[in-house]
From TrEMBL:
It holds the Pfam family Cadherin. This is Cadherin-22. The keyword Cytoplasm does not apply. GO terms for biological process: adherens junction organization; calcium-dependent cell-cell adhesion via plasma membrane cell adhesion molecules; cell migration; cell morphogenesis; cell-cell adhesion mediated by cadherin; cell-cell junction assembly; homophilic cell adhesion via plasma membrane adhesion molecules. One of its GO terms (molecular function) is cadherin binding. Residues 67-147, 148-256, 257-371, 372-476, 476-591 form the Cadherin domain.
C-alpha cells in the first residue's frame, strides 16, 4: 500500500501527506510486487506547486518523489512522463527531485499532468504502479487589465441631463480571479472628467454636466483607466480612449445672414422665371436644418412665389405674375424662414423662425406694341362690297417713348387675301367678295410693330363672322319620284316633300309650297306648315296605256328677305298593283331596277360584265393559239435526232469517263444470257430473239461473245411506255447502244474507222416496228434503195 502526503499551505509552499488504499488512484497493485508479502508502499511529494514567472538563474525546485522502499542505496531509478517531461521538468533519477528548467506563465498554461515511475535500476522493472500527479502554476499579478473591445465610440444628445448614460466599457485581466485580487478591476477617468464620469465597478460612462452643446464642441476624447488589485497600491493598470460624439437636437432657430436682399429682373421675364435665392442659416445639422419659406406680405404673395430647394435648403423666388416697368418699378417682398421639425422641449428658447426683406427691381426693356384687347371678334354681312370696313384693331407701345405703331396681316392665315388692313389706323376691310355658305368664319392674325423697329412685333388673333344674307333659293331635298297604282282613289297620299336652303336666317327657315301654274289638275299639294308639303291624287284611277309618267312642278318660296323661290319636279309613275295595293310592275323594268339601283351603280355593273366577257374571250383565244402552236410543233418534230460525240471513251476500263457498273447493275447479265432474250411473245421483232437484231447492227459488233439483251430490254420498255401514254407526241428515236468488252479488237467506236459502210446495214426490219416507226422505216428504206441504185 502506498502512502501519499496531504497538501497543507504554509508560507507560500505546499506539503502533501495523504494516505490512500489504492496506490495508483484506484488502480490495483502489481501482483508481482505483492508476492513478497509487503503491502504498505506509497509515494511521497514534498511540493507540487510552482510559482510562475520565476526569474532565478538556477532551475526552480518543484518537489520530490520518493518510494518508501527506497533504502538510499541507489537501486531505484525515478522517471517521469507526460506534459513537459524532459523539457520543462527534469527529475533526478536517484533522489527523485523535480526541477523546472523554463520560465512558466499561468496565463498560457495553468497546470501540467505527469506520471511518475519507480523502476529497478538493474532490471528496469516497475517497483510500484505508475501514478499520475499534477503540477499547478501558482499565479502572480503579472497581467494588466486590457480593453479588448476598443476602440470605443459612443454618442449622447446635446443638452442631456446630468447622469445620462453614454456607454459601457469593460476591461479583462488574465490573472487568476480565484487567487487573491489580481483580477479585480476598478475604473476611473484619466482625461475628460470635467464632462463625464465612469462607474468604478461597472464601467458605465455618464454625463457630468447638463450644458453639452454640439455647436460648441461636437465630440470629446475621454481616457478611461482600469486598475487591478482593486485599485490598491502596486496594482497594474491599462487605459483606453473613448470617443463620445455629441448628437444634434433642434435647439437653434434659422437666421438670415442679411436683413435685406436686392435682386433685379427685366419686365419681359416670363412667369416662372427665378429671380434669385436666399438662405437662412441654421447651426443644427441633419433634418433639424430642414426649413420652409413663405411670403408674408400681400403684395409679394400676388406677384411672387417662394419655393424651397430640398438639396440646399435655399428659398427660390420666382415670378408669379407678369411684371411691368411702366406700372411699378420696385417690389418689396417679405420672406420668412421656419424650421420644418420643431422640438417641443426647446420651445422656451425662442421662436424658431426669421424674416428678411427682398427688394426686386424691374428693368425696362423695349417691348412690342400691345393689343387692347388682345383678341377681337368682328362681324360683316356676306353681301358687303369689296373695301367695306369690318372693324378696327388698336395697339399701343407700352414703353415710355410711345413709338408709333404700324399694322399688317399675317398672310399665312389669310392666303386668299380676303381681308386687308390699313397700316396706320388698323382698319380691317374686305378684299374680296364674301360668301357665308363657302366660309362662315375667318380666323386671321394681325401684326402690330413699332414704326422704326419692325423687330418689335406682337400678334393678335382676329375672328371674323360672316353674317348671312338670303341669297340662295330653297330647293327640293332630293329628286323625288313616286309610284301610283292605276286603280288609286282621290285623296291618296303620294309623296311628302321637304326642301333645303343653304342660307341660315336668324329667325329660322319658313318655306311655302304651291303647284306651278303649268301643273295638271290630277294631283293636289297641301302645305303642312312645318316646312314640308304633301302630294295627293285628285282623280279616280289612271291608265298606263294612255300615260305612264307625270311630271308635277312644285314651286317653293322662302321667307326672305328678299323672298326667293325655285321650282322642283316630282316624277310620278303609274304602276300596276295587286288587290292589296302592292306594286307589281310599272311601265318599264328600268323603273324597277332604278328603284333599287342608282344610274351610277347600273353603269358600274355593266362595265364589270363587259370586262368579264373580254377576259373570257381573251383566255379562249390564248388557249386556241397555244393548242395550234403545239400541233404544228408536233408535226414538225418528226425528224431524225443526230447527236455528235467528238471524244472517244476508254471502254469499260475507263472508270473516270463513265462508270459502266451503274448501267450493268440494273440487270443480271447471267440471267439475260440464259433466257430467251427478255422478249415475250407478241412483242414484235424488236423484242424477239437476240439473233434477229444482230444482223441489223454493224458487222464489226456482231460477235458471239457480245450480249445486247440489256439494250434490247431497255428499248422495249421505252416502246411500251410510248405506246401506252397517248399524251406523248409520237417522236421517232433511233439509238444504238454498244460497248467494248475486254481485249476488244476494235480500238474505237468512231464511225471513221468502222469496218462497215452504210451500204452494209439492212434497215428493213424497221418496217415491223409498228405504225409509230413507219416514217423512220420509210426514210432508211428509201436511203437503202438510193445506195443500191448507186452501186448498180
Amino acid at each position: 500500500m502506498l502512502l501519499l502526503l496531504c497538501a497543507i499551505q504554509e508560507l507560500g509552499t505546499w506539503a502533501m501527506h495523504t494516505a490512500v488504499e489504492d496506490p495508483g488512484l484506484g488502480q490495483p497493485a502489481d501482483p508481482a510486487l505483492l508476492a513478497g508479502g509487503r503491502v504498505k508502499r506509497g509515494w511521497v511529494w514534498n511540493q507540487f506547486f510552482v510559482v510562475e514567472e520565476y526569474t532565478g538563474t538556477e532551475p526552480l525546485y518543484v518537489g520530490k518523489i520518493h518510494s518508501d522502499s527506497d533504502e538510499g542505496d541507489g537501486s531505484i531509478k525515478y522517471t517521469i512522463s507526460g506534459e513537459g517531461a524532459g523539457t520543462i521538468f527534469l527529475i533526478d533519477e536517484i533522489t527523485g527531485d523535480i526541477h523546472a528548467t523554463e520560465r512558466l506563465d499561468r496565463e498560457q498554461k495553468t497546470f501540467y499532468t505527469l506520471r511518475a515511475q519507480a523502476r529497478d535500476r538493474q532490471t528496469d522493472q516497475l517497483l510500484e504502479p505508475e501514478s499520475e500527479f499534477i503540477i499547478k502554476v501558482q499565479d502572480i499579478n503579472d497581467s494588466e487589465p486590457r480593453f479588448l473591445e476598443g476602440p470605443y465610440i459612443g454618442s449622447v444628445a446635446e443638452l442631456s441631463p446630468v447622469g445620462t448614460s453614454v456607454m459601457q466599457v469593460m476591461a479583462s485581466d488574465a490573472d487568476d480571479p480565484t487567487y487573491g485580487s489580481s483580477a479585480r478591476v476598478v475604473y476611473s477617468v484619466l482625461e475628460g472628467e470635467q464632462h463625464f464620469t465612469v462607474d468604478s465597478k461597472t464601467g458605465v460612462i455618464r454625463t457630468a454636466v447638463a450644458d453639452l452643446d454640439r455647436e460648441t464642441q461636437d465630440r470629446y476624447e475621454v481616457v478611461i483607466r482600469a486598475t487591478d488589485m482593486a485599485g490598491q497600491l502596486g496594482g497594474l493598470s491599462g487605459s483606453t480612449t473613448v470617443t463620445i460624439v455629441i448628437t444634434d437636437v433642434n435647439d437653434n432657430p434659422p437666421r438670415f445672414p442679411q436683413k435685406m436682399y436686392q435682386f433685379s429682373i427685366v419686365e419681359t421675364a416670363p412667369v416662372g422665371t427665378a429671380i434669385g435665392r436666399v438662405k437662412a442659416e441654421d447651426s443644427d445639422v441633419g433634418e433639424n436644418t430642414d426649413m420652409t419659406y413663405q411670403v408674408k406680405d400681400e403684395e409679394g404673395v400676388e406677384m411672387f412665389r417662394v419655393t424651397t430647394d430640398s438639396n440646399t435648403q435655399e428659398a427660390i423666388i420666382t415670378v408669379q405674375k407678369p411684371l411691368d416697368y411702366e406700372s411699378k418699378r420696385v417690389h418689396t417682398v417679405v420672406v420668412e424662414a421656419l424650421n420644418k421639425f420643431v422640438d417641443p422641449r426647446f420651445v422656451d428658447l425662442g421662436t424658431f423662425r426669421d424674416q428678411t426683406i427682398v427688394r426686386v427691381s424691374v428693368l425696362d426693356v423695349d417691348e412690342p406694341p400691345e393689343f387692347r384687347p388682345t383678341s377681337h371678334l368682328m362681324e360683316v354681312q356676306e353681301d358687303a362690297h369689296v373695301g367695306s370696313v369690318v372693324g378696327v384693331v388698336t395697339a399701343l407701345d407700352p414703353d415710355t417713348a410711345n413709338h408709333p405703331v404700324r399694322y399688317a396681316i399675317d398672310r399665312s392665315t389669310d392666303t386668299e387675301r380676303i381681308f386687308d388692313i390699313d397700316a396706320n389706323t388698323g382698319a380691317i376691310v374686305t378684299g374680296k367678295v364674301l360668301d357665308r355658305e363657302t366660309a362662315g368664319w375667318h380666323n386671321i392674325t394681325v401684326l402690330a410693330m413699332e414704326a422704326d423697329n419692325h423687330s418689335q412685333v406682337s400678334r393678335a388673333s382676329l375672328r371674323i363672322r360672316i353674317l348671312d344674307v338670303n341669297d340662295n333659293p330653297p330647293e327640293l331635298a332630293t329628286p323625288y319620284e313616286a309610284a301610283v297604282c292605276e286603280d288609286t282613289k282621290p285623296g291618296q297620299l303620294i309623296q311628302t316633300i321637304s326642301v333645303v336652303d343653304r342660307d341660315e336666317p336668324q329667325s329660322g327657315h319658313r318655306f311655302y309650297f304651291t303647284l306651278a301654274p303649268e301643273a295638271n289638275n290630277h294631283f293636289s299639294l297641301l302645305d303642312v306648315q312645318d316646312n314640308t308639303a304633301a302630294v295627293h291624287t285628285q282623280r279616280m284611277g289612271f291608265n298606263r296605256q294612255e300615260q305612264d309618267v307625270y311630271l308635277l312642278p312644285i314651286l317653293v318660296v322662302d321667307s326672305g328677305p328678299p323672298a326667293l323661290s325655285s321650282t322642283g319636279t316630282l316624277t310620278i309613275r303609274i304602276c300596276s298593283c295587286d288587290s292589296d295595293g302592292a306594286i307589281q310592275s310599272c311601265n318599264s323594268t328600268a323603273y324597277v331596277v332604278s328603284a333599287t339601283l342608282s344610274p351610277g351603280a347600273l353603269i358600274a355593273l355593266l362595265v364589270c360584265i363587259l370586262i368579264l366577257v373580254v377576259l373570257v374571250l381573251l383566255i379562249l383565244t390564248l388557249k386556241r393559239h397555244h393548242k395550234s402552236h403545239l400541233t404544228s410543233e408536233d408535226d414538225e418534230d418528226m425528224r431524225d435526232n443526230v447527236i455528235k460525240y467528238n471524244d472517244e471513251g476508254g471502254g469499260e476500263q475507263d472508270t473516270e469517263a463513265y462508270d459502266m457498273s451503274a448501267l450493268r447493275s440494273l440487270y443480271d447479265f447471267s440471267e439475260i444470257k440464259g433466257g430467251d432474250g427478255g422478249g415475250g411473245p407478241g412483242e414484235g421483232p424488236l423484242c424477239g430473239n437476240p439473233a434477229s437484231e444482230l444482223h441489223a447492227l454493224p458487222q464489226w459488233v456482231q460477235s458471239p461473245d457480245m450480249d445486247f439483251s440489256v439494250f434490247r430490254d431497255y428499248i422495249c420498255r421505252k416502246v411500251e411506255q410510248a405506246d401506252e401514254d397517248l399524251s406523248v407526241p409520237p417522236y421517232d428515236s433511233f439509238q444504238t447502244y454498244a460497248f467494248e468488252g475486254l481485249d476488244s479488237p476494235v480500238p474505237s467506236l468512231s464511225s471513221i474507222n468502222t469496218w462497215s459502210t452504210g451500204s452494209e446495214q439492212d434497215f428493213s426490219y424497221l418496217g415491223g416496228w409498228g405504225p409509230r416507226f413507219r416514217q423512220l422505216a420509210a426514210l432508211y428504206a428509201g436511203r437503202r434503195g438510193e445506195e443500191d441504185g448507186e452501186e448498180s
